[in-house]
Amino acid sequence: MRIDILTILPELLESPFKHSILKRAFEKKLTEVYIHNIRDFAVNKHNQVDDYAFGGGAGMVMMIEPIERLIDKLKSERDYNEIIYLTPDGRRYDQKTANRLSTLDNIILLCGHYKGVDQRVRDHLISSEISVGDFVLTGGELAAAIITDSVIRLIPGVLSDETSALTDSFQDNLLAPPVYTRPADYKGWKVPEILLSGQHEEIENWRMEKSLEITKKRRPDLLK
After folding, report:
1. Nearest to 39 by CA among 18, 58, 11
2. Which of 40, 43, 87, 109 is a good FRET partner for 73, with 20 to 30 A between their CA atoms?
3. Radius of gyration (Cα) for the chain, nearest Å?
């Protein structure tokens, strides 16, 4: 799988991809992530990629020309399954979307900034829009890092135990059950006996019951 991230601030994305699971995924050549600076396709020698909004108002708007030039270049080199714009008013990101994206070959993530992109980018150049939550970030870079991380960890071979991702919260519209590790008794705070019993079927039943209990309490909307 290949992910291309388009941004005006590539420096913000350097650290997230140099550590932990993502780093190992790159080393295993299971995925590729390329970060492209939109300013390399600026409209003039001043590296301009934004301008004032027609009609007035506060804030700058990312111009269509540099974005289209970069997208056209990438599309001339390979086919893309999705070209995604990251924006607060996009479709809410969830685990089902992460699962779907992890099955694709090539995707582009376009990071918004300032007051967003020229509407013609949204109308003509992208295939979908995603929001990571009902709040506003300075730019789409952190959202791109979140999506990249959540997608890559689902690719077969990335996690040392591939079943781990299948038991994560939200995979079955349920929150994950409680987990415990050693010691079994800490200051009188004990691990539930069922988890020490070795009865695997009963343990799985307990975990399912706890998942349902926690989901009903914390996120009843998921059970709808």
Report:
1. 11
2. 87
3. 22
Cα separations (Å) of 49 from 69, 117, 195? 11, 10, 57
pLDDT tens digits, one per residue of 198-224: 999 999 999 999 999 999 999 999 998
* Longest Cα separation, the chain: 70
Which one-letter amino acid corresponds to residue 132? V
Residue 220 tokens, joined: 């009843």
The answer to whether residue 159 is domain-embedded is no
Backbone angles phi, psi at 39, to 5 degrees: -65, -20
Pair 148, 74 in one domain: yes
Neighbours of 158 (CB within 10 A): 21
> CATH no. for residue 51?
3.40.1280.10
8 Å CB contact between 66 and 38 = yes
Phi, psi of 122 (to 5 degrees): -70, -35
The answer to whether 16 touches 155, Cβ cutoff 8 Å, is no
The domain total for the chain is: 2
